[in-house]
Write a structure and sequence with these properties.
mainly alpha
């Protein structure tokens, strides 16, 4: 590596460590995520070809006007598969984040509000589930219930719930002990009303940060499960499936498919982490950066 490139790298690191630099990186990352989401939503209109159409006369085509990213071993357009693959690759992690945060937040608030033996039981249950790696649980679920997206999503949601519950619980306990909660109780408001209208809104910053982390982890795990052949099944376009399909082509000198899919996953996860870290800084949330 040359001296100018080393200097440029050090400059980028210094930029990332400054508040203004992290803000710029987070803004760029958020813009990238918006573009990815828009591309996924409008994939049927943006994709130049059907992602599952096979053209055996045109395998491993080089990038051209007709096929901007080239084709795979079956002659399928890589750009179209990448765009359509974003739909399943982004929808699955979103379901995991919603389900895990819903379960984790409910457990955390109940444990924080009730305290005592209820808090002890919930805490022990969280520790037990926390001991199981999420990816392993998802692989077992896919092996038992068959390949597809449903079983891994449900398994990952259960595995991720303790991660969010443990963090949210500590914040909820602190919120539960604030004077305004006691004042609302004296006014005769029910615990459900207090939690729904007052405690939960104050927990939204930490919930948003945990949602971003869960989404990033789930995106990686679901791509890994599809890569193993236990998630989305070909010929359906999915980033994990594309990485698997491109493995054989790498030794033949055509790494485009695997590089495109793996690079998209990695850059998307990096962008999610940068945005989540910025949110944690914005809301002054420790332990989530």
């Amino acid at each position: 590596m040359t001296a100018p490139s080393l200097g440029l790298g050090r400059h980028a690191l210094r930029l990332a460590r400054t508040p203004s630099g992290s803000g710029v990186l987070a803004a760029v990352s958020a813009g990238f995520l918006v573009c990815v989401a828009v591309a996924a939503v409008f994939a049927p209109w943006l994709a130049p070809h059907d992602p599952t159409t096979i053209d055996l006369a045109n395998p491993y085509a080089a990038p051209s006007a007709e096929h901007p990213f080239g084709t795979d071993d079956s002659g399928r357009d890589l750009l179209s598969r990448l765009l359509h693959g974003a739909r399943l690759s982004l929808a699955g992690p979103a379901l995991v984040a919603v389900l895990s945060l819903s379960l984790g937040t409910a457990l955390a608030v109940v444990a924080a509000w009730c305290g005592g033996w209820v808090d002890s039981i919930v805490s022990r249950a969280i520790e037990i589930v926390f001991a199981f790696p999420g990816l392993l649980l998802a692989v077992i679920a896919a092996a038992v219930f068959g390949p597809g997206l449903t079983a891994p999503v449900c398994a990952l949601a259960i595995a991720y719930a303790p991660l969010s519950a443990r963090v949210i619980r500590s914040v909820a306990i602190r919120e539960r002990n604030l004077p305004y909660v006691a004042a609302l109780q004296i006014q005769g408001q029910s615990p459900l009303r207090i939690c729904a209208l007052h405690v939960l809104p104050n927990l939204l910053p930490i919930i948003l940060v945990q949602a971003g982390l869960a989404y990033a982890y789930a995106l990686l795990d679901l791509a890994a499960i599809s890569f193993l052949g236990l998630g989305v099944q070909p010929p359906a376009p999915d980033w994990g499936v594309m990485i698997t399909n491109g493995q054989g082509a790498i030794v033949e000198g055509y790494p485009q498919q695997s590089i495109l899919a793996a690079g998209t996953v990695l850059v998307t996860v990096l962008a999610l982490n940068l945005v989540t870290s910025r949110l944690a800084d914005r809301f002054n949330i420790e332990g989530a950066r």
